[in-house]
UniProtKB/TrEMBL annotation:
The name this protein goes by in its record: Crp/Fnr family transcriptional regulator
GO CC, alphabetical: membrane
Protein's membrane topology: Multi-pass membrane protein
Keywords, ordered alphabetically: Membrane, Transmembrane, Transmembrane helix
Location(s) in or outside the cell: Membrane
Pfam family of the protein (one): DoxX
Primary localisation category: membrane
Source organism (scientific name): Paenibacillus herberti
TM stretches of this protein: 9-28, 90-115
Amino acid sequence: MVAKWFRENVWVAAAILLLRLYVGWEWMTAGWGKLLDGFDATKFLQSAVAKPVADRATMEAIFPTYTWFIEHFALPNVKLINFLIPVGEFLIGLGLILGGLTLTAAFFGMMLNFLFLFAGTVSTNPWLLLIGFIIFLAGANAGRLGLDGLLKPYLTKWWNDRAGTDTGAGKTSWLGRHEARH
């Protein structure tokens, strides 16, 4: 009952809009700053390998597979990382602010927060991760007051036309026919 209310209520959509604007601004300005300043992740990645997040008692790396990933993929491909991080941050922010591909933007924002945390950077990551999770939990309601809400009727019609279905005149959508078979 609470989940349904959270995912469908217009007042929740308005509250989520405020969260989207805040988190989106944080992501967009972080990405824009990196784009303007010539972002280079090399030292950050080297530090994450040299001093991984470790257990205080044993000094063993807590995320050894992530440290391996950084050392064997991210560092050798640092030029790709230097492009993906600022562009990704900017696009996450833009998606959240405009409410376009909102759940996708929230998902990738949470993924970046986790990756930064695994590398040992706390900063604002836990806070942005929590708010991103709240936005993501709202489902389609998160983009209701944004581009997602404006485009949903058109995309639904386009999808149904491509799937060869018509939800009017007593016909069921592709999903309804699929569920009826199982």
